[in-house]
Amino acid sequence: MTTKALGPLPANLCAHLQNTSRGFHAQTSLPYSTSSLAISSILLRSGLISNVTLGSPAGPSPSQFPNLPIPARKLWIGLKHRNGQPVLRRMNLVSKSSFRVLVTRDELGRLLVGKRARNVAGVGIGEILIVRTEEDQRQGRVRGEKYMEGWEAWRAGLGGEVICRVG
């Protein structure tokens, strides 16, 4: 799989969510970006966080969000805890800026069933992979990169860059 330009990795997002979840915070804010919104919506669909809201530095406020300057836009994320434990326990980067992990659909399938591929351990019970796929005009995806959960990308017949694993 080839790629023209790999975008920045969400290392700050991963570290921030993991640390605030382990610190038993009910809610946290992150600088808004389309990649942060896409990754947090995957976490929401997977049941690892409770909500995602657009807002300002003062708090969640979707009505004020469009009128804010870009640096003041925040993404507010509600964190889940169950039986005294955080639901989102680990959120680790797989691809690093020095070593990008690009997989084909077949290699992604191996990872998803728990087998090793491309020097990456397979997923375990309760873990998901977040994959950044490329633009594909045949599939009608022409707005650049798209973040998908590993099984969604595999079902769509896509490979891509394995961004992070979440458990």
From TrEMBL:
Pfam families: Ribosomal_S8. GO terms for cellular component: ribosome. Keywords: Ribonucleoprotein, Ribosomal protein. InterPro entries: Ribosomal_uS8 (IPR000630), Ribosomal_uS8_sf (IPR035987). GO terms for molecular function: structural constituent of ribosome. GO terms for biological process: translation. Belongs to the universal ribosomal protein uS8 family. This is 30S small subunit ribosomal protein S8.
